Amino acid sequence: MDTKLVVGNIADVETECLIVIAVDHGEKQKNEPKLAIKDGAADKAASELISAGEVTGKQGETVMLHRPQGLKARRLLVAGAGKAKDFGHTAARKAAGAAVRFLKPKMIKSCAFALPELGSGVEDAMRAVVEGAFIANFDPDTYRSDRKDQQMKEITVIASNGSDQGKLQQNLEQARIIGESQNFTRELVNEPSNRLTPTIFAERARKMCESVGLKCEIMGPDKIKELKMGAFWSVAQGSDEEPRLIVMRHEPQGAPEKPVIGLIGKGITFDTGGISIKPADGMEKMKYDMAGGAAMIGAMRAIGLLKPKVKVISIVCATENMPSGKAQKPGDVQIAMSGKSIEIINTDAEGRLVLADGLHYARTLGCTHLIDAATLTGAVVVALGGVNAGVFANDEDIYQHFARGLQKSGEKFWRLPLDGEYFEQIRSNIADIMNTGGRYGGAITAAMFLKEFVGDTPWIHLDIAGTAWMDDNKGWMAKGPSGIAVRSLVEFVRTFDGTSR
Ligand code: BES
Ligand code: MN
Ligand code: ZN
Question: Is residue 189 domain-shared with residue 54, that is, in the same domain?
Fold first, then answer.
């Protein structure tokens, strides 16, 4: 999708459809202006819709008018963003997305957004509109033979006269990169496991790195064994598909030696559970068990293009988790790369095994700060559902930095605890730790397991099991892969100046 910026009068923009965002002031202030822009011509064109009560500003509402008077646009679409008092970039992002999803099936190929006025500034407004439009433009029906080409081809953003054109153009460009990168992650997550084996996954990462100028190294079984990644290998050994260890590097000239941010992703291209096999019902969804890895690859794409002056190394541990004559069994003891011994209680708790070695490897490569993302536990789905993802941190400063990023990205994460007491649940009789900690606090005991492999390095763990795949369509976004974490990871990296620890 192409993006254009126009600085000028809304009334003069020729477009298939002009989109303006409206807000809801509620019953008491019925007569307050509804449009989230100050523009006489747009107000006038929408005035009849508003006075007739057809525009309420309710979130998700879309009201369209043909041949709006006084505007050069062929249509006017008023997109509701919900309560005026809650209006911010998250609501604007959703309204922009809902507008695009409303227009797409009508085969409207281009549209223009009037940049809404946000308390937090034009940069936020630009990001909201552009990211929202890109996210809405993604459809998951890749393999449908009757797939319609209903994608939006071009969006224009209209800013009022007197705006700083150069700055806005830059904001627009950055938002496009982030929106496209989130969609790149969603494409990867959407692929079924027969079409995205660990080998193909790694190839996709390599191609992406080549196209944005990142270094990329891909290692197979021999190297994984040579590095003594006993935890990673224990999962990979059961599959006929070879595992891949993917290492992507952003090492820009002029970046300080430190910090080095490590982004580690769980890349299970299919999780059967292994010998502790999962029930058949719903198992098809386990193709998305590589969403953490895909989030890292998408984030690295954005980082490669945005070029922040900070070093970043991303590691994705890609493998299937299969039952077979070669598969590991409950009771087996594995030695991780760090030297820690692990008693395997349940072969379905495989994500923490591959991440244990991924995290340790990141430290040996010199990472000073770590973030991992993984569809790690069903327990986080029980705790937080599909609305918030889980976040854990072993250090307040790194958490605060991540939380500030959430303000900008608009993604929802909820912090869960990491008290030492939970460690008792994963203490083993035969080895240093067990790979499961019983029924209670499952998301936390999984995080406690990972904590054993990060030492004293500041670290954040994102459990995206409940949020990486959406079961229902939203007004602003199709159901299926969500691309969760990409925007927050990018925000974390681009605002990281190394003083945050
Ligand atoms: N990939 C799953 C977690 C998952 C569950 C992701 C639901 C997405 C949706 C993970 O590998 C797993 O199987 N976890 C087990 C751990 C248990 C055996 C301790 C779980 O959560 O049931
Ligand atoms: Mn599993
Ligand atoms: Zn898994």
Answer: no
Residue 189 has pLDDT above 90, yes or no: yes
Instruction: Among 284, 287, 343, 348, say which to mutate for ligand 1: greatest number of ligand atoms within 8 Å of CB.
Output: 348
User: Which residue out of 223, 278, 404, 412 is catalytically annotated?
Assistant: 278
Residue of the CA atom closest to atom 22 of ligand 1:
378
Q: Please report which confidence band the pLDDT of residue 498 belongs to, taking 50, 70 and 90 as the band edges.
A: low
Label the pairing between strands 110-114 and 154-159.
parallel
291-306 vs 486-494: helix crossing angle, rounded to 10: 40
Q: Is it the case that residue 392 has pLDDT exceeding 70?
A: yes
User: Looking at residue 31, which CATH number applies to its domain?
Assistant: 3.40.220.10
Residues 157 and 200 in one domain: no
Phi, psi (degrees; rounded to nearest 5) at 256: -65, 160
pTM score above 0.85: yes
| 233 and 134 inside one domain | no
Candidate of 347, 377, 433, 445 to mutate for ligand 1, largest count of ligand atoms within 8 Å of Cβ: 377
Task: Please identify, among 161, 192, 213, the residue that sits at the C-terminal boundary of a domain.
Answer: 161
Strand, coil or helix: what is 459? strand
CATH of residue 266's domain is: 3.40.630.10
Strand partners, 111: 155
- CA–centroid distance, residue 317 to ligand 1 (Å): 17
The phi, psi pair for 78, rounded to 5°, reads -100, 120
For the stretch 321-378, pLDDT in tens is 999 999 999 999 999 999 999 999 999 999 999 999 999 999 999 999 999 999 999 9
Any domain includes 493? yes
352 labelled catalytic: yes
Residues 132 and 208 in one domain: no
For the record, the structure tokens of 212 come out as 């944005």
Tell me which residue has its CA closest to atom 17 in ligand 1. Answer: 349
User: Per-residue confidence at 501, pLDDT binned at 50, 70, 90?
Assistant: very low
Pair (207, 138) in one structural domain: no
How many angstroms does the Cα of residue 266 sit away from the middle of ligand 1? 12
- Measuring from each residue's beta carbon to the nearest atom of ligand 1, which residues come in under 6 Å? 271, 289, 346, 348-351, 375-379, 381, 436, 442, 465
Instruction: For residue range 15-34, list pLDDT tens digits in order.
Output: 999 999 999 998 777 777 78
- Note whether 141 and 185 are same-domain residues: no
Q: Is residue 278 flagged as an active site residue?
A: yes
Q: How far is it, in rounded angstroms, from Cα 56 to Cα 32?
A: 11
CA of 291 to the centre of ligand 1 (A): 13
Do 279 and 407 belong together in one domain? yes
Check whether residue 209 and residue 323 sit in a common domain. Answer: yes
pLDDT (tens digit, 9 = 90+) per residue, 283-310? 999 999 999 999 999 999 999 999 999 9
Q: State the residue range of the domain holding 80.
A: 2-145+152-161
Active-site residue identified among 93, 266, 352, 408: 352
CA distance 403 to 285: 29
Residue 295 alpha carbon to ligand 3 centre in Å: 15
Indicate whether 174 belongs to any domain: no
Distances 68 to 14, 76, 103 between C-alpha atoms, Å: 12, 6, 17
Counting the structural domains of the chain, the total is: 2
Average pLDDT over residues 277-282: 98
